[in-house]
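Structure ticket #2291
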Amino acid sequence: EEERAVRDSVRRFVDEEVLPIIGKHYVEGTFPRSLIPRMGELGVFGANLPEEYGCAGLNNVQYGLIMQELERGDSGIRSFASVQGALVMYPIYAFGSEEQKRAWLPRMAAGEVIGCFGLTEPDYGSNPAGMITVAREQADGSFVLNGAKMWITNGSTAQVAIVWAKTVRHGETAVGDDKTIRGFIVPTDTPGFRARDQKGKLSLRASDTSELILEDVRVPADAILPTSGGLKSPLMCLTQARYGISWGALGAAIACFEEATAYAKNRVMFDKPIGAFQIQQVRLADMLTEITKGQLLSLHLGRCKDQGTFTPQMVSLAKRNNVDIATEVARESRRLLGGNGILAEYASMRHMANLES
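Resolution: structure written out below.
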């Protein structure tokens, strides 16, 4: 009952405040920043983190249902919340000091401070072990960061970035191996830090995607996340985000299925609704079957996560499966809509393009 109540409250928010404006933002290539305070009020940022840090303290199924409903609106809305919670708030909670947690988490939960996550680099993509961003320790204990990050959601909106870099200790000259990777809390107004919008996107257009450039960005010693260490730390963050995506993709699929069903009932061809033709009924039945299977998969995964028995492999498989089936649902829905399916007033082609990313 409590899980359904959380789902329904976010569903109302999406229906009333996201869906009326998201098509326009997608076409214009802008993120609807006006939604941020309401999302903070609803408690969607870091919703599965503890209440003592200003978060909602929900279980992982409730968190997943939030991601499902947000992406029913648009992948860009879910991505915004995912990055804020799973990729910025989570590492501060998991690897930060008590002072860092109390300084950042309550303000981020309220949406007063927005964060981004700097791991992926232009030349290395999905191979974070190839990282070349470096943080050199200075004689006074501070660090100077140099490097670039690519495909950074919230990059131009954020006031703070979690930047992952290979550390070089004072007195050393060579860059070490993956074990030297540490996370840093970097305010985006620090001199030498720049975010540059990614231009020309045909997908995730209602999402803020940027390149981060760090040129002699100096941060104090207490900017480091003290218990972060090695590649395992940022990969743990990605596991949290992938879990949310496994639910989120289903939200996009639900939006497409509901749109296709409504259209099939109302669109008359050859003197009857197209939903009366078996070929469209099979399409809708296949969509609903795959969505239901995907929900069962994510629900079971959420229960495992709450029990502490989930693994990163389970999360990756669920995400892979659910994004794949959501992409197929979106394509089939777009086909069922015929020519109308390419218009921005319908959601299926927008979701289809987003899911490609």
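Closing remark: The radius of gyration is 21 Å.
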